[in-house]
Amino acid sequence: MAHRGLRVAVVGASGYAGAEIVRLLASHPCAEVALATSGRSAGRRLSELCPWLHTDLVLSDFDPASLRADFTFLCQEAGFALEHAPELLATTRVIDLSGDFRLKEPSVYERFYQRERPKGAADVRAVYGLPELTDVEELADAKIVANPGCYPTAALLALMPLIASGTVVGTPIVDAKSGVSGAGRSRKETDYLFSELSGGFKGYAMVGHRHTPEIEQMAGRPVRFSPHLIPAARGIEATIHAQVTKPPSAEMFQAFYNGRPFVQVVGSPPSTKLVHGSNLCLINVDYDASTEFAVVSSVIDNLVKGAAGQAIQNMNIMAGLPEETGLPVSGVWP
Amino acid sequence: MAHRGLRVAVVGASGYAGAEIVRLLASHPCAEVALATSGRSAGRRLSELCPWLHTDLVLSDFDPASLRADFTFLCQEAGFALEHAPELLATTRVIDLSGDFRLKEPSVYERFYQRERPKGAADVRAVYGLPELTDVEELADAKIVANPGCYPTAALLALMPLIASGTVVGTPIVDAKSGVSGAGRSRKETDYLFSELSGGFKGYAMVGHRHTPEIEQMAGRPVRFSPHLIPAARGIEATIHAQVTKPPSAEMFQAFYNGRPFVQVVGSPPSTKLVHGSNLCLINVDYDASTEFAVVSSVIDNLVKGAAGQAIQNMNIMAGLPEETGLPVSGVWP
Amino acid sequence: MAHRGLRVAVVGASGYAGAEIVRLLASHPCAEVALATSGRSAGRRLSELCPWLHTDLVLSDFDPASLRADFTFLCQEAGFALEHAPELLATTRVIDLSGDFRLKEPSVYERFYQRERPKGAADVRAVYGLPELTDVEELADAKIVANPGCYPTAALLALMPLIASGTVVGTPIVDAKSGVSGAGRSRKETDYLFSELSGGFKGYAMVGHRHTPEIEQMAGRPVRFSPHLIPAARGIEATIHAQVTKPPSAEMFQAFYNGRPFVQVVGSPPSTKLVHGSNLCLINVDYDASTEFAVVSSVIDNLVKGAAGQAIQNMNIMAGLPEETGLPVSGVWP
Amino acid sequence: MAHRGLRVAVVGASGYAGAEIVRLLASHPCAEVALATSGRSAGRRLSELCPWLHTDLVLSDFDPASLRADFTFLCQEAGFALEHAPELLATTRVIDLSGDFRLKEPSVYERFYQRERPKGAADVRAVYGLPELTDVEELADAKIVANPGCYPTAALLALMPLIASGTVVGTPIVDAKSGVSGAGRSRKETDYLFSELSGGFKGYAMVGHRHTPEIEQMAGRPVRFSPHLIPAARGIEATIHAQVTKPPSAEMFQAFYNGRPFVQVVGSPPSTKLVHGSNLCLINVDYDASTEFAVVSSVIDNLVKGAAGQAIQNMNIMAGLPEETGLPVSGVWP
User: Fold this and answer.
1) Is the peptide bond before A334 cis (omega within 30 degrees of 0)?
2) Is B150 known to be catalytic?
3) Which of B2, B40, B265, D250 has a 20 to 30 Å separation from A239 between CA atoms?
């Protein structure tokens, strides 16, 4: 095992995204989790709360004043990072997995997240960390990175080559579907019980989901976005329907992502299952000549490329490592 | 139990749709299955091939010359009805569950089904049997009914009130998702194995699916349609994204389906699980003011309202019975 | 539709068992739900809480003093029936779906249910209502029936023919597996979330489950019982391993259940899916000559034969109707 | 990345076990797949057949005469290894994942696998490779290892500490349950379609399954074994019910597996989901005082500890590496 030089803190380690960071970093050659916190469980072993993790980590209280780490992953609800980032940045670089720093316009944040941005937050200059679409130099230098939402990751990787080609007409449609783990580990309503979801499929938040402005911000135009719930634990599929003035091609997408290890263009609509546990995004490109629409389907693992894996990819870039360091590509199948 | 006056034949009784007709008719007060056929299994008991069915029916060979029944359900691959309907119509009324008689234009049929329509078929005047959207008088008199496809049923019930309102601009998008039973019982490729599908979600036939022209024919305009596969046995969800000049409303949909027992407008995006085993179609209506799109989500059970249940609803109408006779409305939950 | 003479009350109608009673009675020719109650939701429509049910029922408070019904189904946690049955029996016959009246020995009840039996309960003479194993005459006359647990139903139907044959040696093993709905609709712990259960299988309460003494009471001997959780909403499978002095046979089981409509002996290990929504119990009988064990596998739908369906079967018998009245036999497949 | 010194051949790389070996070896620091074969697909890229694998491997024909590798994994049906092992052993050490070399008694093999052992096979001295129960020195020196069956791995790890304690009375019961991937990737019968298995649970081969003699051989006594099918892709749970003269304890199991990295004793019945993608076996130990039975539940991932992972563990031992080299312990959850 190589020297594990980077010391990492995971704040909120017993949720799905935090635990996935701990799992993935266990096979990272250059980083190790030095500190893990959990709101209500300080003093307990992480493996008690997450028995699938085989680690000796004992959970601490979150104490920003004393936190020392090369990188800190914040895996908390919206509001937490806005409150604590200014203090944390004095002693650690931060990757925030919430929506707190993703939206440039404070008023948009306040409308979609229904909370005010505290004054101190205005001074924090976060970089939006979707490495295939963000200026990598800027990411490398960032003190704090806003890790993208899971839906925006799947949607934007499929959509941006079209937008960049200048051929899109009107409002692109993003019809997206997610595994249930996207709801997190603490949603204990009836709606999230196994018996209520198994064998069923449904839409939710069909209009006004908070990931909409995040997609629109990078797309630079209004986008029609609706999410749905797949009866599976992991995976996001996004189907883009966009009217275009010219047929898109797989080659155009391949050229757009040339040299990037985590986006692959495939020859048929991919299954979310192909990227189970993987940091890849697979994309299929079709063209409907009769309506003149591009039809692009992308899949990611919402907890890997859509959260923990992308966060580590961002850390790699910030640390000057190859972006793929320690991240899995082949999926766990079947 | 009331008198079971109608004698019914089910051709292809050991597939999912045929078996579902047998199951549903077991609690129909006015009809009973007098004849069941299956291509390769004549002489065996239906319950051997479909052990969930508790029936004494013994499978026969299909012999159109000797078939006597008030109603015959054809549950076979495309081509079968075109070949046999002319002869059958001499002795029985027919409800065909394939695509053979759904498309008015022979050339469209030939393109999407990749087979020629035989000459004799031109004389057969089938009525398209989506009772909430078809002229019921015409259905009542029909000698042969083309039972709609599962996707077109879900899509059209959600789309037509918008079309009828005259507010739709441009190409409506139908992003549809189906349980795996839609593929039928005889698709024994690797792709349909449990291990390959469980826990995954994917699109397929994203462009040019054969249900596209069926939707467009009734919509009277081009429609952008893509289907996906849900990791569940049953259920179809269709999300319609349609740019509109005026916000749609639940009331408008309710008025459109006023008095019809099998379409209900609900207050939030419904789950396919709510209609498991039911002949209902549930519809939710949203409006995205920022992009001026109507967002309509409908769910059906692909084997009931999308196949066997709708076929029985058509039979009821053809027989002069109330259309809901013998058909379940409440879903099997959880 | 025949005259629906019997007036039925369902106490706890928004849980899985209560809602299933409402669903099943909708197609019962001689009974109708006149009253439905729900602890915290009086005044709301049942269909709001259970949107898969299409009914106009409005939930009432539970008021034993004013409750008038031919039959009352109690679908509540343990303790409720013990408290209210004495008063209820003045005005209605009762079928209790909890464990309150299943165990003859008060001390056994108190140990396994960890609550005391109130004094008044001693006068209540309940009949254990597993119609294929109980004296039907006694059931027909009962004022109050203790509806069996789901596991005991599956286990005892598979076990009792062996016991009755006098060939069992030593302690029979019941290794049982249940769909998640057996946990009920109000278990909102992390453990019951979709994401935590999907794709996994595990045992629980491997020793000392409260259904153990219920099985032992009828078996008349100690039984080794362990339950497990299937990643599916419905269904119980019980595998009995019992050392025997003589090979069992399918014929012996068929003779044991001769004339009973809801138990069928089949020729291979049945799937729980075959009885999805059905009141049947399917049983397969094997013999392991090398160890001299009988191996018997039974399946039921835990919410039908294991709860609501069996409760209605008991009501039918109490009302002098054929026991199969209004109950489905064919399963909803796939 | 350390030097990848060991050259490995995978024969049958496009099945589930073979593909899992390829996936796991991608992160092994000391081995790399130099050759992959597939019966009918020579010349195609492995990633075409297994699109979840991101590898440049091109499939070859199997040619034992020219095969050169430090280790060869045989992932084929029974019979293949018996035919080819004698020739292969001249140029490579072999780990066979079939049942060909697991059973010492030729007559038992012939009865349970219904094929004759060829004469040449008698000279091949295979070591049974369940490293926690086999003499590790012998394994280290083996030319050919018989990789255990998935059920025997789960069953024996749970059972052997009891057997070793000398407290077991009579016939132990192994009631085991497996995910569907255990059936392999080429079983394309109706029975293995998604629609037929989803949401259901059933037993199969309740008596006489070919893994029975494999369990009995190591247990040194008759064992009552029945397998079942879980509606999930991966995972095996085995519940052992064994009458004992003395209560077992977790400590006894911990002592038995002291120092072994892949067996952990836990405090409650574990879920198969906890070891999804992991090479761990988790074991819970209970005692039923009223019947004097030990109740032990173990879980493994059938494709990892039950096949590919254990095969690599065996390779590690044969190569003189730490047995845990390159093998994952934390599960992919949720």
Assistant:
1) yes
2) yes
3) B265
Q: Do C51 and B26 touch (CB under 8 A)?
A: no
Residue C188's pLDDT band, with cuts at 50, 70 and 90, is confident
Cross-chain Cβ contact C280/B54 below 8 Å: yes
- For chain B, where are the alpha helices, taking DSSP H only? 16-25, 46-49, 80-88, 106-113, 136-141, 150-164, 194-197, 212-219, 250-256, 309-318
Q: What amino acid positions of D are annotated as catalytic residues?
A: 150
Picking from C189, C202, C275 by the largest number of D CB atoms within 10 A of its own CB, the best residue to mutate is C202
Query: What is the spatial distance between Cα A126 and Cα A110, in angstroms, rounded to a whole number?
Result: 17
Chains near D (3 or more Cβ pairs under 8 Å): A, B, C
* Chain B environment of D190 (Cβ under 8 Å): 185-186, 188
Residue A128 to residue A9: CA distance in whole angstroms? 20
Tokens of B101: 């008689």
- Does domain D6-148+306-318 fall under CATH 3.40.50.720? My reply is yes
CA distance B111 to B298: 28
ipTM over 0.85: yes
Model confidence, pTM: 0.97
| Residues in a beta bridge with C297 | C239, C284
State pLDDT tens for residues C92-142. Answer: 999 999 999 999 999 999 999 999 988 878 889 999 999 999 999 999 999
Helix (H) or strand (E) holding D207: none
- CATH ID of A150-302, from 3.30.70.270, 2.60.40.10, 1.10.10.10, 3.30.360.10: 3.30.360.10
Q: What is the pLDDT of residue B267?
A: 96
Q: In the prediction, which pLDDT does A188 show?
A: 82
Q: Which chains touch A (3 or more CB pairs under 8 A)?
A: B, C, D
In chain D, whose CA is at the least distance from the CA of A182? Answer: D334
CA distances from B323 to A118, B262, B310, B314 (A): 60, 9, 9, 7
Considering only CB atoms, B194 lies closest to which of D16, D186, D194, namely D194
Tokens of D177: 């349950």
pLDDT of residue C1: 37
At B123 the pLDDT is 86
The enclosing H or E element of C71 equals: strand C71-74
Q: What is the mean pLDDT of chain A?
A: 96
> Which residues are registered as beta bridge partners of B296?
B240, B285
Please state the domain extents for chain A: 6-148+306-318, 150-302
Each residue's pLDDT tens digit, B94-107:
999 999 999 999 99
pLDDT attached to residue D1: 36
